């Protein structure tokens, strides 16, 4: 049985805390905007308190949301994006499936074969399968890592084929601008992990082709987030 989230020594009800964290990670809002939105409802809480709530409860909410991920597909789209932290370059390596669902992501200080190999190894371990095909951009490190880790897997390397992975970085880029950057690699890893867990809830499968099916999927996603609190 899942152990309930502990809200001991917090004077605000769990529903308010969860709603504030939900607003912050679901929408491209600054902490001060979340503070104002709560104030409109008569809830007086500082943006710094909301930041602490996100840091404390966000990872736990993300773990609970990941407990029932969709069935993984056998085609993976891989990409990496540079993020500058305190004047130093870091790379966020990410893998998504055909629907744009984030399968895994990891912040690394390198953009080479070793980093690509680490991503592929983590992916196979977490997904419990070897893909039929991986799709990447022209970075040669992917091909070298694939030959070492999964030599029998088809590899398509073309920038135009990898839009799903590249588009998956857009929400993070928006938040990076709003937050005026990240302070540490660990902070980036934690933030993007929660951000992707929340975002994944709202990624409809390709089989949901109608607007009604997509709306129903989003309503179900909202319902799942409401169950995070007792």
TrEMBL record:
Residues 75-202 form the DDE domain. It comes from the Bacteria. One of its GO terms (biological process) is DNA recombination. The keyword NAD does not apply. InterPro entries: DDE_dom, IS_Transposase, Transpos_IS6. Keywords: DNA recombination, DNA-binding, Transposition. Pfam families: DDE_Tnp_IS240 (PF13610). One of its GO terms (molecular function) is DNA binding. PANTHER family: BLL1675 PROTEIN (PTHR35528). This is IS6 family transposase. It comes from Microvirga mediterraneensis.
């Amino acid at each position: 049985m899942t152990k309930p989230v502990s809200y001991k020594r917090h004077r605000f009800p769990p529903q308010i805390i969860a709603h504030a964290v939900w607003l912050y990670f679901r929408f491209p809002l600054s902490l001060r905007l979340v503070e104002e939105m709560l104030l409109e409802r008569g809830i007086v809480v500082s943006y710094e308190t909301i930041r602490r709530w996100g840091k404390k409860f966000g990872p736990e909410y993300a773990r609970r949301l990941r407990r029932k991920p969709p069935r993984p597909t056998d085609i993976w789209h891989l990409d990496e994006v540079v993020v500058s932290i305190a004047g130093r370059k870091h790379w966020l390596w990410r893998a998504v499936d055909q629907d744009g669902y984030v399968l895994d992501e990891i912040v690394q200080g390198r953009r080479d074969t070793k980093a690509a190999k680490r991503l592929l190894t983590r992916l196979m371990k977490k997904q419990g399968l070897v893909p039929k095909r991986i799709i990447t951009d022209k970075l040669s490190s992917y091909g070298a890592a694939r030959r070492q880790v999964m030599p029998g897997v088809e590899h398509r390397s073309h920038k135009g084929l990898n839009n799903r992975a590249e588009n998956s970085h857009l929400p993070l880029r928006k938040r990076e601008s709003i937050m005026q950057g990240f302070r540490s690699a660990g902070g980036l890893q934690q933030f993007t992990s929660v951000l992707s867990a929340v975002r994944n809830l709202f990624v409809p499968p390709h089989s949901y082709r109608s607007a009604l099916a997509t709306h129903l999927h989003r309503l179900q996603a909202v319902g799942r987030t409401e169950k995070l609190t007792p």
